[in-house]
Amino acid sequence: KASYDNVDTLIEKGRYNTKYNYLKRMEKYYPNAMAYFDKVTINPQGNDFYINNPKVELDGEPSMNYLEDVYVGKALLTNDTQQEQKLKSQSFTCKNTDTVTATTTHTVGTSIQATAKFTVPFNETGVSLTTSYSFANTNTNTNSKEITHNVPSQDILVPANTTVEVIAYLKKVNVKGNVKLVGQVSGSEWGEIPSYLAFPRDGYKFSLSDTVNKSDLNEDGTININGKGNYSAVMGDELIVKVRNLNTNNVQEYVIPVDKK
């Protein structure tokens, strides 16, 4: 089915058709009625327009860029014996603020108010942020959430007569992407056509379904709509523990499962 990107345009088409059909009827009595098209007015008095099932969908794959790492903590482990030993590092905790900014870049029109929530996907660690989009306003919505990341104590194998440095840090990532604002619109508008010269006052009512081709209607008589938006999220990605042998300068890195509270 076809998808329309502006409900306001459909409403204006409905009003245009209403006035046109009114003057066509008037031609029976006043053959030059169409000459007054720009003089005759439409006075809307109410409507029941609504968007059914408004939702936000991904539009293409998101992009990810890694940002500067966030330092969490450091510890030294010393094995002054003649044998290799497994030593425990201390645990670390850090707080980080995850933020998502959502912008509606193309509304479906200002005549119908609707919002829908969207969860920024980031499958690698299960991290997610939820935001919302307006279908009627080109606004920007920013949500932030403070996350506590825990790095549990690690068992580190330390060679004999060796000191190792244990550093924990949080990798941060910027996730960006585009979205589609989709739904099905329907409803009617009613009002009056005021009298003008010899033309009498008349009431009117039209349905949005009358403003598009019948082949574009869904089975329930609704019309598909499509707006656009984008998002940018900055969030913690992975916890990394880096172990550096101070004798040899050899470095090993370990990825720690994200433990968020």
From TrEMBL:
Record Pfam families: ETX_MTX2
Segments traversing the membrane: none
InterPro entries tied to this protein: Aerolysin-like
Highest taxon of source: Bacteria
Name by which UniProt lists this protein: Epsilon toxin
Origin species: Clostridium perfringens
Lineage of the species this protein comes from: Bacteria, Bacillati, Bacillota, Clostridia, Eubacteriales
